[in-house]
Amino acid sequence: MDDIRTLIDRHSQYFTDWKRFICSLLDTGGWTYGAFAKRCGMSRNTVVAWCEKGQVPRSREQFIRIGFAAKMNPDEMNAFLQRYGKYPRLNAKNIDDAVTIFALQNALDYPQSLELKRRFSSHLKDVLSRRKIGRHSDLPCFATDQITSELLSVSTLVQFENFVERNREAFASTYVKLIDFIDAYIAMNTMSENGERGTVNSFFSGLIENPAVVTEFNTAISKLRCYGEIPSRNKLIALGIHLRMTADDINTLLEFAGMEKLCAKDKLESLIIFAAENAALQNPGIGFSNAILLRQFTKNAAIREKCDRLLRQYNMEQYLCDDSADIYEYITESLVTLDDDSAEEILHLLGKQ
Prior knowledge:
Blueprint: H1 2-10, H2 18-29, H3 33-40, H4 44-53, H5 60-69, H6 74-85, H7 95-105, H8 110-131, H9 144-152, H10 157-166, H11 168-173, H12 176-190, H13 200-207, H14 211-227, H15 233-242, H16 247-256, H17 267-282, H18 285-297, H19 301-312, H20 327-336, H21 344-349
Helix pairs in contact: 2-4, 3-4, 5-6, 7-8, 12-18, 13-14, 15-16, 17-20, 18-19
């Protein structure tokens, strides 16, 4: 633990610095606090808090407002959301994000994008609700890159309407991989001796004493399953830790959510990487056991193939279960020692605050 703390302190200048970024953004654009606040549709005091106190915007939507105010293109917005907000990149198979991509690509402003979202979101959320994503395996999969490329070529509202209609099934299938991955891990962690699987609620109720946190996870997964609403990055990372995922599987979880992998330049996430990998080194059986069980429960052929590759790397003699090397315990004990406000939310979600 002392080694990783020393490493973090030594390289602190390389970690993401929101205050430096937002101040540079305003300087480059020649905007005063008041002028930029007006462009964002937010208060001057909020912008002052960003620039002078280093307070980070509290929602993905606030980051999107900033991106519109700075006239970012879709690629710039994606980098901005992932690096500074730790939120999912814009996903062309999500209707709200598809509208945002269309608006940014065609120089529409934020209020215009909101009007388009109101126009298209209600109908497609009804489609998502009826299909009950995650409870059916018959939804086809669609290439995100292909749909994104198609969307970036759309330049008129009529073309966008046609794009939405053509890709209705793609919108409905967006979250199949993410939900399958979560469901497989829930099944792994709740399987009883007689083969019965527990529920999401039973899993978290048995782990977390705070009922409010249990409700947070239940609500987040319910919204994901029924409406395609992706949980926040910290909530997904905390979910992965609760489920005893290796660092590699947490990265898979984040990628399925359209987010970048755990970032070594982020103080909090670098500590999670270190603790998770240290636990796996102490107990190689963690990866072996997870791969065996994940292959059994996932419906994703690519994940099953990945598990097969991992299992081929192990010899049965290596599979030694050491309960003292528990990923959850390693990570939470490490985070508790981190003297940084960034750890507060995730420690709350991990039931440590």
